[in-house]
Write a structure and sequence with these properties.
Radius of gyration of chain B: 16 Å
CATH superfamily of chain B: HUPs
Distance between the termini of chain B: 22 Å
Oligomer: heterodimer
Largest sheet of chain B: 5 strands, parallel
Shape of chain B: globular
Number of helices of chain A: 11
Largest interface: A-B, 37 and 25 residues
Chain lengths: ~250, ~140
């Protein structure tokens, strides 16, 4: 157990989980900070605590399931593709729905926080499960770090993301990295890769001295950031026209 | 004389307001003041639309913006200078200049030391950017 802490792999793993969590809890935090705002001040704290409390419990259960599922063949490939998609989507700005009304009752606000968390934490669950690479220590530490962030830091995170939108790009890159890593470590590919002349070291595919997971992780990060920024740029002229129309209205 | 004053809620940014109050006798009539603050847009994340509506985000901008304007409003009220307020949303310098142009202001007052003093050293401050892109005279208050 103690030896685990001393290895480079452990620290890289932990940094990865923390990074993934900060970014991927960011979107949940934004929703929590905004959803609670329409409540009277007294109920805001209660809604945040109950909403995030329930969300955290849900998140832990889902992540434990995800860890178990990821040991099955093919599921890492599916999860990896899902993460690629989520990562690219993260980088393309999305218009808010106009028909969601601010709710001034607490139950509705908690429901909003929970639904948002369920929708928005799929990425978080898969990425954390993948980054933990089967280590329960990493998993628990990673989740323990994300919980206070979501509960207490929601407004702070929102402000940080407003000021430095590049945080979101980094998050997308991180998702791409984890997705790339996950893709090549799927057990279903092991035989095929062995046939290609790739060697296995403790079950990790390696080319020469380099771990294949690192290479494909880096490629994955580049793919997500490149595809995401390209799509965002293509979408931008529309968004700008819309913003201008809105400004002339006011 | 129509003057736009930009504040960001920080103590430093109130220097611009104080400067206007100190030198109100520069102007023949009481100046017509537009007090503005700019809020950076909320990041648009996937799935957010399911939980947070446009009017909720709008309300967030207004609440935050009003809190930032409040100290400057108190100063102007105490000096009995009439003013209008607006909370703009967008990139800070561009929004200030655009608003000043749209409202046909004669002068922009802005403090050089705002909220992002550390960021300024690396990126160039909001005030410098306003100075660069504005066609309207800009008064920098140090």
């Amino acid at each position: 157990m103690l030896e685990q802490f001393a290895t480079q792999v452990f620290w890289i793993g932990l940094l990865k989980i923390i990074g993934v969590n900060i970014i991927l809890s960011g979107d949940n935090a934004v929703v929590i900070a905004l959803a609670a705002r329409s409540l009277p001040a007294k109920q805001q704290k209660a809604a945040i605590v109950w909403g995030s409390g329930a969300a955290v419990v849900m998140r832990i259960i889902l992540t434990i399931f995800a860890v178990a599922l990821l040991t099955l063949p093919w599921l890492k490939i599916i999860g990896s593709l899902l993460l690629f998609w989520i990562g690219i989507k993260l980088l393309v700005p999305e218009e808010g729905e106009a028909n969601v009304n601010a709710s001034d009752n607490m139950i509705a606000a908690i429901k909003t926080i929970l639904i948002a968390d369920l929708v928005m934490s799929i990425d978080n669950v898969i990425a954390v499960a993948a980054a933990a690479q089967g280590s329960l220590t990493l998993l628990i530490l990673g989740l323990a770090i994300s919980i206070p962030l979501v509960i207490f830091g929601s407004t702070l995170l929102l402000h940080l993301m407003e000021r430095w939108p590049v945080i979101i790009t980094i998050g997308g890159g991180l998702l791409g990295f984890v997705a790339g890593e996950m893709l090549v470590t799927d057990p279903a590919l092991a035989n095929w890769m062995a046939g290609m002349g790739i060697q296995f070291n403790d079950g990790n595919p390696t080319i020469g001295e380099v771990k294949l997971a690192l290479v494909s992780g880096a490629i994955g990060a580049v793919i997500v950031v490149a595809a995401g920024t390209w799509l965002a740029k293509r979408k931008q002229p529309e968004a700008r026209a819309e913003a201008e129309a809105e400004q002339s209205k006011s | 004389m129509k003057i736009l004053i930009a504040v960001d809620g920080s103590k430093n940014s109130l220097d611009a307001v104080q400067c206007l109050l100190d030198h109100a006798d520069w102007y023949r009539d009481k100046p017509d003041v537009l007090l503005v603050t700019v809020h950076l847009p909320v990041p648009k994340l996937p799935g957010m639309g399911a939980a947070v509506g446009k009017n909720q985000i709008q309300k967030y901008y207004e609440q935050e913006g009003e809190a930032r304007l409040a100290p400057a409003m108190r100063m102007l009220e105490a000096a009995r200078i009439p003013y209008q307020t607006s909370v703009l949303v967008g990139p800070i310098a561009e929004s200030i200049v655009q608003h000043a142009k749209a409202k046909r202001c004669d002068l922009i007052y802005i403090g050089t030391r705002g909220r992002t003093e550390i960021g300024k050293a690396m990126l160039g401050s909001t005030a410098t950017k306003v100075l660069h892109i504005s066609d309207i005279p800009v008064l920098l208050v140090k």
